[in-house]
What does this fold into?
Amino acid sequence: MADHYEVLGVSRDASTEEIKKAYRRLARELHPDVNPGAEASERFKQVTHAYDVLSDPRQRQQYDLGGRLGGGDAGGFAGFGDIFETFFGGATRAGGPRSRRERGADALLRVEVDLDDVIFGTHREVEVDTAVLCDTCNGTCCQPGTSPVTCDICGGSGQIQRTVRSLLGNVMTSSPCGVCRGYGTVIPNPCATCAGQGRVRARRTVPVDIPAGVETGLRLQLPGQGEVGPAGGPNGDLYLEVKVRHHETFSRSGDDLLATLEIPMSDAILGTMTTIHGLDGDVELEIRPGTQSAEILTVKGRGVTRLRGQGRGDLKIGIQVVTPTKLDRHERDLIEKFAARYKKQKPQLAQFQQGLFGKLRDRFLGI
It folds into this structure.
């Protein structure tokens, strides 16, 4: 077997850049399109194989080790571990050429929904900017009417084999072909639309059903809706990360909806019936006489639909009694007369109530 350094016309201590320059010079001279002769074709194969080995630091180290045995220097044993790797299959790969078709990458998008969409779910049309199948070549990577041809260097195997002399004897190694990159075929006429990739970038619309009960941070998986793979490979998946927009009136706690209802002092004292506008329609509320601030009114089944269950949460209304700050003379007289009848007891600290503080805490958190 010809020495790779001699084939490229470089010294054994040549740098990677010198090896590359030598290969480019010889490739331009010996390429079949320039020099169609049989002898030039054979030399071109040798030059390509030599460059494939010497341009890879790992393969070059193994090659140098096999070529310098008997030199007597201790440095010859520096790659001893690599010899065992090679011998026992660490660097030798059996099997045929690899496929151009690969699975496409997954895609992640963020979609925003309103709080009222969360109650029953919603449908969206999501625009995705990703890789799609090339319409011109339909994933073949070739210009229409053409097809890949078998690689002349590796004969379609996708691998280049060579024998390396080592302390263990001659070892057969295999590495991907540098001309076809391990595919076993080359594409002489790549598709002009996709540049031989079999796919192009495009914007498409994906219909999505967002289920009820989703919350911020939840990811929905849409199998097969990601980008198409190289050479028309199978699509990856599309993931949608949900963000629920802030609502000015309602907030959420698990499957419950929370809101605050301000009522005048007179309604808190006498009681009343009122109607509020919920996210899914009107809700009638009864304010009982003597209602206090921080009391919670619960409306069953008017919260968020449970994501992985049945039924809905509750609507919880926190009461806030509004004390008037501006009174005319007549109103003040009425309040003073009312207060005079209840002047028997002065304000004082009440007995500790765990539930009361829980309600007050919820109130200040936005109930």
Q: What stands out?
A: Residues 67-94 have pLDDT under 50 and may be disordered. The domain at 107-140+192-244 is CATH 2.60.260.20 (HSP40/DNAj peptide-binding domain).
